[in-house]
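Moderator note: this is an archived Q&A kept for reference. The question asked for a predicted structure of one protein chain; the sequence and the answer are reproduced below.
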Amino acid sequence: MSYIRVLGGGKSQVIKDLAFCALLKGVLPASDKQFSILFDEFDDEVRKEDSRITREALSNVHGDWYEWLLAVCAWNYFVKNENSDLAIPLPNVMQFDVTTLYEKRLYDLIIDLKQKVAEVSEVQLITSNPDFVIIDGDLAREILGQISEIEDITPENLTELEGTYQKFIGKCNFEQIEGYISVKKSLRPDRRLQIPHEGSLMKALYAHLQTREWITSPKGLKYYAVATKITEPDRNALKTVATHSLTTVFSLPQAAVDEVHEVNTLQQANLAFSSILS
């Protein structure tokens, strides 16, 4: 089956999931194979298939390919490590609101907050979805039941993996969403700003639920950043404070981003998940 789609006007488009599976030949790359090199090799193969595919078009699918590699790795890490949490990919906020993962009572508190913000001011509380949510391992095992490693990289397996979040809608209590992960194939200055902004906002919502639920000693919500390459300026930029934590003197300011991980191989991904999910 071809992974190239011909559009109107003779333009060609990569069918990203078919291409990903075909180019991997259905198996994960070697643990030390650099993703950046792998994607360059994929690009060359795609352009041999259809020279009309531009470099820009290929760059646009790299982000999805990168997230799929990480999603499969996170799933397999969870299966192999009985005490780990589970990181699952999320669709964008236009398709799904991540706060609906909370139990209805908690979700209603967030909706109430958004409505009150809109009622008393001329601004709105607009949120985005992180790329991955981290679910408490005990809850994940209870809901998912008997599961196995993903060995065959097929479009069907990717679709099932991407839909895993649906099984947790309305199921998570205050403590069972452990945190989030922002995943970027590359970090540009504008992306560096997006990550701490999102981390700060998710932690502010968590703090709001803590206040409404009168939870005096929460374990806290974690927010992580992952990219194929992290420079020192990137790390410095991501040390931004979580804005809401500046509004009180009763606790120390919190980081918007708790840890930054450079992940450009499956080996590095497993190391990162051993830290993030343990």
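Archived answer notes: Strands lie at 4-6, 12-14, 86-89, 132-135, 177-184, 222-227, 259-262.
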